[in-house]
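Ticket #4471: complex job returned nothing on first submit. Input attached below:
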Amino acid sequence: MNRILLVEPDQYLAEVYSSALQHNGHIVSVARTVSQSVNLLDAEQFDLMILELKIAQHNGIELLYEMRSYVDWNKIRIIIHSSVPEQKMMTSKTMAQLDVDKYLFKPRTTLSELCQSVEQIMSRQYS
Amino acid sequence: MTAQTYHKQQIEDDKSRLFIALAEQMKAPLIKASRTAELARMMQDNTRLNEIEYIADMGLDLIDSYILSLKLQAAGEDVQLQSVSLSATLNDVAHSLQKLQSANSFDIELHIVGKYGPIMAHPAGLHAALMNIGKVLMTAQSEREITSRPVIKLTARRTPRGIAAGIFSTVDGLDAATFAKSRKLYGTAAQPLSQLTSENGAGIFIADSLLQTMSSSLRVSHYKKLSGLAATFMPSQQLTLV
Amino acid sequence: MKQHSAVSIVLTRTNYGEADRIITVLTKDSGKIRLVAKGVRKIRSKLAGGIELFSTNDIMYLPGKGGLGTLVSSRLRKNYGSIVKNIDRTMYAYDALKMIHKITEDSPEPEYFILLEHMLAALNDETIALDVIKTWFHLQLLKLGGHTPNLMTDTEDHKLSADERYGFSFDNMSFVKQSSGPFGQHHITYLRLGITFETAKKLSQVSVAPEILTPLVQLTRTMLERHSRVM
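Support reply: We reran it on our side without changes. The output follows.
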């Protein structure tokens, strides 16, 4: 059972993704804003973060850099799950530098694929 | 390039950008519908299918308002403006937004300040514009951390320049300079209204396009510590029938 | 010990112990400095804490042993808050900070600070297209590093011609005549302006078609990667 922080500003989608992940046996906390995410990261232990980059007022890139500047948060695996296409956003080099495990393009990623990605990354983590 | 040619080019560029903004925005309801269907299958829960209908209708409404904006623009000076009761329109819009309320848990309030006659507007265009603004503000509110019960206020009041219709919410972050910049960014930037909402906010720009066909346009405004968007209309010269 | 003051821009932040942060700042007159900012982790807003990225700050600090000083105070001078409203600009801002951090030694010239300030100001101005900022910034970095491309003559020392097409030789940092080369007069003119203009804002006032500008972003980026330590 993994603890997942889902950073998703859309209330409806947050509920859908959260339901699917919980159905697959994970514990999910939802953050809608960057400051809410930081507060949750401070307060709880997470194994993985699923991150939408398009967030109001601040954005997911900022959160990503901020996270990776804290050694104690570096163990948290990261899946970017965004409606911004990968090629528009970051190179494989930047993904490696920021230790992003996977970049999923939201319009083309089914719930099953999202859950499978979580399983793959977490099983790599523990093997 | 002559001024006329430049102006025509500008209009075509704006149309392309608006189309791109719409197309990007349409991904949101389609993603929601698709994932909801998948979740319903995954959890063998058909009660979610109603949500798909609701989501699809949201998308269709947006497309319809976009098409209307194109038609009104194409009509140009031949747009059929009529005497429209602003308070009646705001009342209709409030009721329509109310149907979204159960999903979003908002208070929808109507504040009609003073008495005045009808305004010159395109009835369907005005209704669509106000609905789009209300929906974007409701989305923006739902993306915020909840500190108190969110409220959407629809207002009408007389100003020196005419009759102003506005929609306001507890969402902060919208100012005149940001909004002016966002008008140049829609269709190109991923988040032209990033201070307001994570989404494209295409509904706002479609609303703006609709209002411009009625010789009005959106501006950032404030009402009793709330911020939002408003547009001003000319009073109708037609006698008010009581 | 005497406190020092500086105008600074934060290049990097990492955490240090339970409550502290180590920041590397670029200053106008004192080069690059590493400082411990004590107790800032206790501040709830991790995104600020008085040592924000994408801002110019007036700092007071105590120099320390082993190249690590202590931040005494920080006052925000100018915050380029619009950058984080745009994902693409946020991404590039981080890239640019990384580039400056890698390129500069511990005692960089004041020009690097001025360039970084101009770059952040440009990113903060949504009226300046991002590709213009990138092209301008890359060229300015090349210029400061002594790697200005040759925009006057080709690899055979012939004056660049408005009627010719060119490729680019990264070894020579010059254009090479190529009958179906990707670059022509407009590209070269724009590069010359990018080198000359002190700010991206000025460059943005020059009208340029996307098909001219887009390849220049990649061209100037590759020049930097080949001749500077940006990657």
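Chain C touches chain B at residues 85-88, 126-127 (CB under 8 Å). Closing as resolved unless it happens again.
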